[in-house]
Amino acid sequence: MSGDKVSRQKPCHHCKSRSASVPPDTSTIHYEKSWLYRHCSSVQQRDRQTQKAGQLFSGLLAMNVVFLGSAFISSMIFNNVAITLADVWILLSILKVLCLCWIIYYLLGTSRQPHAVLYRDSHAGPIWIRGSVLLFGSFSVLLNVFQIGYSAVLSHCKSRVEIVFPSIEILFICTQAFFLWRHSKDCIQVQHNLTRCGLMLTIATNLLLWLLAVTNDTIHVEIDSQLRAVEQRFAGNETTLCTCPNTTICKVFQKGYILLYPFNTEYCLVCCSVLYVIWKNVGRRISDHLVPHTKPKFKLQGVVLGPLLGASAVIIGICIFMMYQIQATASAPSRQVFVMYYSYYIVLLPLMSVGAVIGTIIHALEKRELDTLKNPTRSLDVILLMGTALGQIGMSYFSIVALVATDPRDLLNSLILSYSVLLIFQNITQNVFIIDGLHRQPFVAAIEAKHTRHAGQDTVASEPPGEEGTVTSSKQEHTQMSAGKEEEMKEEENHEAYNQRRMSMLELGQEIRKVSLTYIHNYSHLNWKRKALREISFFLVLCNIILWVMPTFGAHPAFENGLEKSFYGYSTWFVIVNFGLPLSVFYRMHSVGGLLEVYVTA
Questions:
Q1: E-assigned strand segments in 510-584
Q2: From CA 210, how far away is CA 264, in angstroms rounded?
Q3: Average confidence (pLDDT) over 466-486
Q4: Smallest Cα–Cα separation from 438: which of 223, 303, 596?
Q5: Is residue 445 within 8 Å of 451, Cβ to Cβ?
Q6: Which of 36, 63, 242, 508 lies at 20 to 30 Å from 129 by C-alpha?
Q7: CA 65 to CA 181: how far, in whole Å?
Q8: Of 118, 123, 126, residue with least CA distance to 285
């Protein structure tokens, strides 16, 4: 393309050498009026204009694809006779085939060209993001396997499209996951416009898959609730529904599909975030001084109180979640289960909010420099944290209006009202803490290395001397014993075995003592600000994990308590929950990654 030739032009060597060697004096003023300076400035300006034009064109392409797919999905919802689910599947299959063609072309052609990937963004594609892509991608593949098995069992009353679509989906998930794992850090320098359009087409396809997953789940749950009501009224009557010849196999496929369904929505959102960073890095040139030479690593050192409180919150949350799920699957959840569920949140959310506020105050008291460098990954982290938090905040405000308008003095209503208010405050304070921590420069790693060396020397110096001497002397004494009698040889063997056991126990005790002394020494060398930040970050990580697990695996009291549903109506409240809940789940998962980074850099 014509835009690629212009965008690949680099600033001339004379511009770089002149700007680097000449100080800002009268000669610089004369240089700025010369033809060479005007030429270099015009090249850089054309570079930026071409980049903006390519981003605009690819963004318009993605916008049109998203609007077309949204129109198909909306038509299926409101008029499922004219536009069926199979029509939507055909459209998405065409988009996925186009994305597969571009990804294969990028893997085999674009990325292998000379000077294609000269720079790699060290901040893009952290290990927890790429691990999430592989984890959720694996669950999504398993989900489609269950869907294929269920459709194959019911092949006598289902179309072949319901088998072909999941098969294409499996191929698309595997290829995309491999592409994101290998090339999430690329700053591609060739074929800019084609790469931007391919990335935006893939982003649009993932957004449409997420939208279909959300709306299709709504329709399935609504149909299931209607079928239960019909079966209760007309028990014993024959129906024309598609029945399964093997009930056990069908139940296995259905349970597996329902259990793995939330992971598919999370996979689509994670892929969109990674693809957006790659799209922003197309044509980007990173200077050498912007590349960090040493990265801080995750070490479980300097934390004691945070893991204890966090582990307690996780264990209690798992117990409450299991009790809730047992009653929800057996029959309708009782009022006591809802009271226990919301009481757990009312205790946990203020602790998380107080920790986030204290951490923000500590950030303000620190003398660390701010990370002011332009970084698309940091910008995306802020957008995702603020954007996905709107899902839970919006649901909370809808609940507040419904509860205040009905009966806020009731016990359960007052608990839900308090839960909604506390959840809004917790999301805001946690976002401020994470964003403030992400924009701080990490501490110098050399200080920690120095402390570690001192700790190692102290532990070596504090080892109890003379253990090896006692062992060797005992062996020499045994070798000097007479070997004439069998009883004495047996005693010698028993004594040697005892000494070996004693020596292994001593070595184990020494290793435990070394690890303990090193941990205590590292912990004591951290100042109180760093200790507090690590404690708070680790505590919030564990709390966000349990708050991610509970709604992901089926705890949906926002719909099952029936209060907001009776106020807004079945369809309206179901749409609110199904759009807000996936965003809130993604927010918890993304917060875990941000908090881990705050912990590492603290």
A1: none
A2: 8
A3: 47
A4: 596
A5: no
A6: 63
A7: 25
A8: 118
Distance in angstroms (rounded) separating the CA atoms of residues 135 and 42: 47
**485 burial via Cβ count (<10 Å: 0-12, 13-18, 19+):** exposed
List beta partners, residue 117.
Answer: 188
- CB-based contact 308:148 (threshold 8 Å): no
Confidence of residue 455 (pLDDT cuts 50, 70, 90): very low
Structure tokens at 525: 């060398």
* 3-class secondary structure, 585: helix
Neighbours of 386 (CB within 10 A): 15
* Beta bridge mates, 119: 187
Helix (H, G, I), strand (E, B) or coil at 36: helix
Which structure tokens are listed for 571? 């369809």
pLDDT at 289 exceeding the cut of 90: no
Average pLDDT in the 568-595 region? Answer: 82
Q: Model confidence at 243, in pLDDT bands (50, 70, 90)?
A: low
Token look-up 């065409």 returns 94
CA distance 4 to 53: 11
Own/partner long-range contacts of 410-416 (Cβ < 8 Å, ≥24 apart):
411/339, 412/335, 412/338, 412/339, 412/342, 412/561, 412/563, 413/563, 415/338, 415/339, 415/342, 415/343, 415/346, 416/342, 416/561, 416/563
Tokens standing for 531?
Answer: 């200790």
Question: Which residues are CB-contacts of 99 (< 8 A; sequence separation ≥ 6)?
Answer: 172, 176, 198, 201, 202, 205
Give CA torsion, residues 151, 157, 160, 161, to 10 deg.
-80
Encoded amino acid at 20, one letter: A
Read off the DSSP letter of residue 80: T
Q: What backbone phi and psi angles, to 5 degrees, belong to 187? A: -115, 85
Q: What is the pLDDT of residue 296?
A: 56
Give the DSSP H/E element, type plus range, for residue 117: strand 117-120
Six token digits for residue 491 = 């005693």
Q: Which two tokens stand for residue 165?
A: 């679509």
Q: Cα–Cα distance between 11 and 44 in angstroms, integer?
A: 7
Q: Assess contact for 434 and 594: CB atoms under 8 A.
A: yes
**HSE-up of residue 581 (Cα within 13 Å, Cβ side):** 25
Residue type, 189: Q
Tokens of 89: 């599947």
